[in-house]
TrEMBL record:
Family (UniProt): Belongs to the DegT/DnrJ/EryC1 family.
Pfam families found in the cross-reference section: DegT_DnrJ_EryC1
Gene Ontology MF terms: transaminase activity
Species classification: Bacteria, Pseudomonadati, Pseudomonadota, Alphaproteobacteria, Rhodospirillales
UniProt keywords, alphabetically: Aminotransferase, Pyridoxal phosphate, Transferase
Domain of life: Bacteria
Name of the protein in its database record: DegT/DnrJ/EryC1/StrS aminotransferase family protein
Length: 395
């Protein structure tokens, strides 16, 4: 994916579902790190972790190579293993479930609320068994689930891990930033995310002790990383005292340099994403109220990573696939988030989930990013309602 932003005065086709917004400042930051001679995990990474922790309002952040790696290490640190069950919604990307499989655990899928598209305390609690070790909740689209309400109903031994791949900058209904709940919370810095470094992720940790354990796990279980040994020559030899199986999941200073600039630009990005979302919301209310956007949760602040809508199939003469292919042919990056997981062979197909099954062929996501212009959002909307009208729908 390429960076750059369109202006408010033209439409650049194709309009990607989500593209990063990079400026000369990100390019200069990468150049600075390359010229330093140290491009692996080092001082830049440590500064990025500290700055992200301060932005979120949490004491400790550990950066890793992806959000998948963040979710995986979170389960490792919680002791999830063979035979354990990990509950998660079926309406999510496969990483959420796969990290349980990596450890020999069983993903158990729960339903979501039709309006918010989020798991609920009731839907999670319905799947809890004696084998449940953890729940991975998904802040779908950037809308924060009320984790405090979930914690109140869960048995004390069941841990909560938050998949916040979409939710950097979001806030829970009580106003607390996502990441500062006290749960292990995992962010993504993939190419289309609200903060993009191409790849990468991070874990917000409840304690320095947990953070130190995760930092060791991301580097083969070593007590010190290459930067620590380089900057502190008296550090012991790398493999001295190795006692725990770890992994190679670290971040790099090249990525962190981009991330530090992107972090400083989050207010700018959030304002643009909200402006695009408001453009869509106003247009839906005015032109096509049967097209249902993802509902809000109280006063929760939406990060606007996705703009998901529910199609009124009962009022249409075509299916979603026809609509999506027609719009993509016009250069509009319509997408689908997601094909539910609970019917897929990999996960030993599980019982029906009524709401998820209802949403499965109705949900669709409109392009939204900090690189989009309002003219591009208006173009997307005009082509969408023209397509709906052509296929017999009505507002």
């Amino acid at each position: 994916m390429t960076g750059g932003g369109a202006t408010n005065h033209r439409v650049n086709l194709p309009i990607a579902f989500g593209r990063p917004n990079f400026s000369d400042e990100e390019i200069e930051a990468v150049t600075r790190v390359m010229r330093s001679g140290w491009i692996g995990m080092g001082q830049e990474t440590l500064l990025f972790e500290q700055e992200l922790a301060a932005a979120v309002g949490v004491g400790n952040v550990v950066s890793v190579s992806s959000c998948t790696g963040a979710l995986f290490l979170s389960l490792v640190s919680l002791g999830v293993g063979a035979g354990d069950e990990v509950i998660c919604p079926s309406l999510t990307w496969c990483s959420t479930a796969n990290v349980a499989l990596y450890l020999g655990a069983v993903p158990v899928f729960c339903d979501v609320d039709e309006q918010t598209m989020l798991a609920t305390p009731h839907s999670v609690l319905a799947k809890v068994s004696d084998r449940t070790k953890a729940v991975i909740v998904v802040h779908y689209g950037g809308l924060a689930l009320d984790v405090a309400a979930l914690r109140r109903v869960l048995p004390a031994h069941v841990a909560i891990v938050e998949d916040a791949a979409h939710a950097l900058g979001a806030r829970y209904p009580d106003g607390t930033p996502v990441g500062a709940s006290g749960n292990l919370t995992c962010f993504s810095f993939y190419a289309n995310k609200n903060l993009s470094t191409g790849e990468g992720g991070a874990i917000c940790c409840p304690s320095a002790q947990v953070a130190a354990h995760l930092a060791s796990l991301r580097q083969h279980g070593l007590a010190s990383d290459a930067w620590a040994r380089y900057s502190q020559p008296r550090q012991p030899f790398a493999l001295q005292g190795l006692s725990e199986l770890g992994y190679k999941l670290n971040y790099t200073d090249l990525q962190a340099a981009i991330g530090r600039v992107q972090l400083r630009r989050q207010a700018e990005f959030a304002a643009r994403r909200q402006a695009i979302a408001d453009c869509y919301l106003d247009a839906i209310a005015r032109d096509w109220p049967r097209l249902r956007p993802q509902a809000r949760v109280g006063d929760a602040r939406h990060a606007r990573h996705l703009f998901a809508v529910r199609l009124p199939l009962e009022n249409m003469t075509c299916d979603r696939a026809t609509l999506v292919s027609t719009l993509r042919a016009k250069g509009i990056g319509i997408s689908i988030h997601y094909v539910p997981l609970h019917g897929m062979p990999l996960y030993q197909p599980q019982p029906a989930l009524p709401v998820t099954d209802f949403l499965a062929d109705r949900i669709m996501t409109l392009p939204i990013s900090a690189s989009m212009s309002l003219d591009e959002a208006r173009y997307c909307w005009s082509e969408l309602i023209a397509c709906l009208a052509t296929h017999g729908g009505h507002p």
